[in-house]
């Protein structure tokens, strides 16, 4: 393979000396590396690039990682669906609020729609005041502005913004006079019985892309001309100078700021050329084929990207009440939540593959497979009405027999049957700690100790052990001493570990019909951190 850039490669060394294993943060400064750094030796081994550096450091890089495409931050036009109104002829990206809250996959789909298409609608959000804040907090944080943590969109007797009248509002983005601008907006309908007052959206990225195609000089002018945006009322004066269309270093559209009501006075040379480009862009945003119009009913909450989508409203008659509550939030928190949801999905897929793969192997001389044993333990916990974290611990308690702490396939179960303590409870807990808190991992870590404890303190318990379980008991240290048992009983997770141990002993019935791994995915997803 082509020799990679040495400083880039060393800067990305994943070893524990270079990065904190808990959070992946680097433990050195780029200036700490020697000026004459080179690759002294390299080879490909077991799907990895092994490197010996000129300063003696050793690194290992997965070959697949070396060829990964850059992820980006999801803010530019790249990877997004640039749309026209007809693209939603079959319906808007939407979800039921209850399903969104209950199902991580549904929540991920909604947030992904906001990232990709710029918006989504949640239906059935309780039409009560301040509920819009709960929607924002389901994926991030509320951005407090001069309007407060939330604002009411309704006719006001002394409005400081045209949004608080019954007039039509042309397509625009909010708060262009802020730096940074709130990147997300939420509008929750509490009441809408007036004639008119329909909502509208325009994909500003699509409009900007059309301008770039039809009039590249006008597009370039709008990307490099700072526009003064201003907002004033009795208590506030806000200013920001930013272009109408912002692009990144690669020329990709990243942000649109478009608000005629807040456009200040442009000074300097080239105003005629700017206004020609500005009018052309404005005309594109008003093309009927780009304007998506729909009505928000009570309980509907619209979540949209305020740096991409222009939102609008038709005029309405004051023959009925129209009341929306809104708030601002930010895309980085939404992106973070979405990434964590995707990470959780990947983790659950990994666990499912273990149950279907390595879990199909024998369970230490018993008449069930490893997966059957763990599923039966979880079913026993459910029948007992155990708390979700205990059901999860029962389901995953023997994971250390299937995989080591680093995710590699384990042979430790066979080691145990050959008389070598594999400490599978420790390795399983260490592996699970990247996804779950101590309420799950501690019962897993202590479940072997719980067997030794019960053998020491509970008359008749040891006699009920299977032949294989009696054998592993001796390998794992035998019954605890009186002192060890007293110390174990004082541990915070001891009672939970004992409960998991009892379900473990009930989970060795050949042919027992119990739910499969998929049954537990929602429970596990809810417990993931």
Automatic annotation (TrEMBL):
This is TauD/TfdA family dioxygenase. It holds the Pfam family TauD. Its cofactor is Fe(2+); L-ascorbate. Residues 95-328 form the TauD/TfdA-like domain. InterPro entries: AlphaKG_dependent_hydroxylases, GBBH-like_N, GBBH-like_N_sf, HD_domain, TauD-like_sf, TauD/TfdA-like. It comes from the Bacteria. GO terms for molecular function: 2-oxoglutarate-dependent dioxygenase activity; metal ion binding. Keywords: Dioxygenase, Iron, Metal-binding, Oxidoreductase. Residues 371-447 form the HD domain. GO terms for biological process: carnitine biosynthetic process. Residues 7-67 form the Gamma-butyrobetaine hydroxylase-like N-terminal domain. Belongs to the gamma-BBH/TMLD family.
């Amino acid at each position: 393979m082509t020799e990679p850039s040495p400083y880039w490669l060393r800067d990305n060394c994943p070893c524990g000396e270079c990065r904190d294993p808990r959070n992946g943060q680097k433990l050195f400064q780029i200036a700490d590396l020697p000026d004459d750094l080179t690759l002294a030796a390299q080879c490909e081994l077991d799907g990895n690039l092994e490197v010996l550096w000129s300063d003696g450091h050793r690194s290992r890089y997965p070959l697949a990682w070396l060829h990964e495409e850059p992820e980006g931050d999801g803010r530019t036009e790249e990877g997004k669906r640039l749309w026209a109104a007809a693209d939603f002829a079959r319906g808007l990206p939407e979800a039921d609020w209850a399903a969104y809250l209950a199902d991580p996959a549904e929540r991920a789909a909604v947030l992904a729609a906001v990232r990709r298409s710029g918006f989504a609608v949640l239906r059935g959000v309780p039409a009560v005041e301040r509920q819009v804040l709960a929607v924002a907090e389901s994926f991030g944080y509320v951005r407090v502005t001069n309007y407060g943590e939330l604002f009411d969109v309704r006719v006001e007797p002394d409005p400081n913004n045209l949004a608080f009248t019954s007039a039509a509002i042309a397509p625009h983005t909010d708060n262009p006079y802020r730096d940074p601008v709130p990147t997300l907006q939420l509008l929750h309908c509490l009441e809408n019985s007036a004639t008119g007052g329909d909502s509208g959206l325009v994909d500003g990225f699509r409009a900007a892309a059309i301008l770039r195609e039809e009039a590249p000089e006008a597009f370039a002018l709008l990307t490099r001309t700072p526009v003064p945006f201003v907002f004033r009322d009795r208590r506030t004066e806000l200013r920001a100078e930013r272009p109408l269309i912002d692009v990144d270093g690669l020329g990709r559209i990243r942000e649109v700021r478009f608000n005629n009501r807040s456009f200040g006075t442009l000074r300097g040379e080239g105003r005629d050329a700017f206004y020609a480009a500005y009018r052309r862009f404005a005309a594109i945003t008003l093309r009927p084929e780009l304007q998506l119009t729909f009505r928000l009913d009570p309980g509907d909450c619209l979540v949209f990207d305020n740096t991409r989508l222009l939102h609008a409203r038709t005029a309405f008659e004051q023959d009925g009440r129209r009341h929306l509550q809104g708030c601002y939030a930010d895309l980085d928190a939404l992106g973070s939540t979405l990434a964590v949801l995707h990470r959780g999905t990947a983790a659950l897929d990994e666990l499912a593959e273990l149950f279907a793969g390595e879990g199909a192997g024998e369970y230490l001389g018993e008449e069930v497979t490893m997966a059957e044993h763990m599923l039966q333990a979880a079913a026993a916990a459910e029948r007992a009405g155990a708390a979700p974290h205990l059901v999860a611990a029962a389901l995953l308690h023997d994971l250390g027999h299937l995989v080591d702490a680093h995710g590699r396939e384990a042979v430790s179960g066979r080691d145990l049957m050959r008389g070598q303590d594999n400490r599978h409870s420790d390795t399983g807990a260490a592996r699970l700690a990247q996804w779950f808190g101590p309420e799950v991992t501690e019962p897993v870590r202590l479940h072997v100790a719980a067997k030794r404890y019960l053998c020491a303190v509970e008359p008749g318990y040891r006699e009920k052990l299977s032949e294989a379980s009696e054998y592993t008991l001796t390998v794992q240290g035998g019954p605890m001493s009186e002192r060890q048992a007293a110390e174990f009983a004082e541990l915070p997770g001891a009672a939970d570990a004992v409960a998991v141990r009892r379900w473990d002993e009930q989970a060795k019935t050949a042919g027992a019909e119990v739910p499969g791994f998929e049954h537990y995915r929602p429970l596990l997803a809810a417990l993931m951190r």
